[in-house]
Design a protein that fits this description.
Elements (H helix, E strand, L loop, with lengths): L6 E6 L4 H16 L3 E6 L29 H4 L4 H15 L5 H10 L3 E5 H6 L15 E2 L1 H8 L3 E4 L1
Parallel strand pairs: 1-2, 1-5, 2-3, 3-4
Amino acid sequence: MDDQIEKVSIIISQGSLEGIYPGLIMANGARAEGMDANLFFTFFGLDAIHKNRQKHIKLASVGNPGLHVPTWIGGLPGMAGFMTRQMENRMAKLDIPSVPEFIEMISDTGAGLYGCKASVDLFGFGPEDFVDQVKDQIITVGDFYQLAAGGQIIFT
């Protein structure tokens, strides 16, 4: 097959560790392969680019079938923090950057990072709430579709 993907636009809508990392990894990989990449953060995915929240992203420990533990165990006090630390330790051993480092690294490659205006308005945020790589790039869904035109849209 000779059709090469030249551009991807990735939507990150979840605010959990396992909801944010796939999009970051895919965007980083796209840039490494020479593709244009845009990241569009909406709903709880905004936590990845929120100044006060991005360092506190947790693994979803309740009702997460990928953890292979009963839901009631995931709901025990402190379990989300414990499981998050375990996952972060494993990622550190593999030299996977933290969310803030990943956001900065991806931005430095020239990828576009955008916040969803509707979600920003819904949660009462303003440009000052976001990291420098995004604070001036809060866009509408229509703007996102224009950026995505001609490429693949990926929803994580």
